Amino acid sequence: MEYRRLGDAGMKVSVVAIGGWINFEEGKIGEEATRAVIERAYELGVNFFDSADVYGRGSSERVMGEILSQYERNTLVISTKVFGQMSDDVNDRGLSRKHIFESIDKSLERLQMDYIDIYFCHRPDPETPILETARAMNDLIQQGAVMYWGTSEWEAHQIDEAVRVCDKHNLHQPQTDQPQYSMLFRERVEQQILPLTQPAGIGLVPWSPLAYGMLTGKYDNGVPEDSRFAREEWAKEIMMTEANVEKVRNLKPVADRLGVTRAQLALGWLLRQPGVSSVITSATKPLQVEDNVGAAAIKLSEDDLKEIDAILA
Q: Could you tell me where the DSSP H helices lie in the chain?
């Protein structure tokens, strides 16, 4: 396993992380299967595990915390998120100081931990000033409840404002951003986000690096009955276009020549970016974890990258 600094922070994260969304948001796998995935990931050197309070309304944090409690806390990098609607109460959502302070206590209790390594603002909150959110995050860091804070799915101008506000008021700035980023979803990150975050020392930890599974090649010849696209029409509509199917098929000879799977090629392609600290992967089986972790060793040459770009163009 390779470990990288989270942007310009001193803390290091495994370049392959395990996310909790697929396990709980739509009931894809249960606790026993989740345990097998997490334990195998830890055995292979994964130290970065990502969750969110809104995944299963706390279920993801609760089960992940129970499984990870068997390991020494200093060997783990744990992230979770705040923003989503957690109840019908008018203040039980967003990035207000009230909601952030109430949410952190609940997340820590579910995770069975004294602190969280990374606390993500899951979405931007148009109803709360960024200064209010930044001050709340800074206070949590000062109290030791959070080590670093980050953004997720914020626009470039919002991240820029957060950095400028923190600099002006001498607050801890966001250290990481979690955007959607993959071979099939790249323009926003490469044209807007990376040019801002990389110079600012903010490390990216992309979610959906395999484009909802499209980049694995499982949809080359249609939609298998037991696949994600068979269960989730919305994901199929987003990713399974004729153009994307052709691109993924054309990536197979490249992966075969390099002796890797297409999933490993897609993850390795992301990790070749110096502004990317880790990729948030999903898995329902230990074998998928093993395949994903194999991407940590992939090194792509300039000729490889040119060939890939020609396919993706």
A: 21-24, 31-43, 59-68, 97-111, 130-143, 156-169, 187-188, 194-197, 228-231, 233-239, 242-258, 262-271, 286-293, 302-312
- Judged against a pLDDT cut of 90, whether residue 236 lies above it is answered with no
Say whether 28 sits in a helix, a strand or coil: coil
Q: Which domain holds residue 17?
A: 3-216+273-298
Answer yes or no: is 10 within a domain.
Answer: yes
| pLDDT single digits (tens) 78-125 | 999 999 999 999 999 999 999 999 999 999 999 999 999 999 999 999
Residue with tokens 């860091």: 141
How many domains are contained in the chain?
Answer: 1
Over residues 284-305, mean pLDDT: 93
Q: Nearest Cα to 208, choosing from 154, 267, 255?
A: 267
Residue 98 lies inside a defined structural domain of this protein = yes
- Residue 12 dihedral angles phi and psi, to the nearest 5°: -110, 140
Catalytic residues: 55
250-266: average pLDDT: 96
The answer, yes or no, to whether residue 182 has pLDDT greater than 60, is yes
Between CA 31 and CA 280 the distance in angstroms is 19
Range scoring the smallest mean pLDDT among 15-19, 52-56, 218-222 = 218-222
The verdict on pTM exceeding 0.85 is: yes
Find how far residue 117's CA is from the centre of its chain: 14
Phi, psi dihedrals of residue 229, rounded to the nearest 5°: -65, -25
* Class of residue 258 by CB neighbours under 10 A (exposed 0-12, middle 13-18, buried 19+): middle
Question: Rounded to whole angstroms, how far apart are CA atoms 188 and 280?
Answer: 18
Cα–Cα distances (Å) from 215 to 47, 57, 69, 162, 209, in that order, read 24, 29, 33, 33, 9
Tell me: the pLDDT tens digits for 33-43?
889 999 999 99
Q: What is the CATH number of the domain that holds 177?
A: 3.20.20.100
In a domain, 247, yes or no: no
Q: Are strands 279-281 and 203-204 parallel, antiparallel or unpaired?
A: unpaired
Q: CA-based Rg of the chain, rounded to a whole angstrom?
A: 19
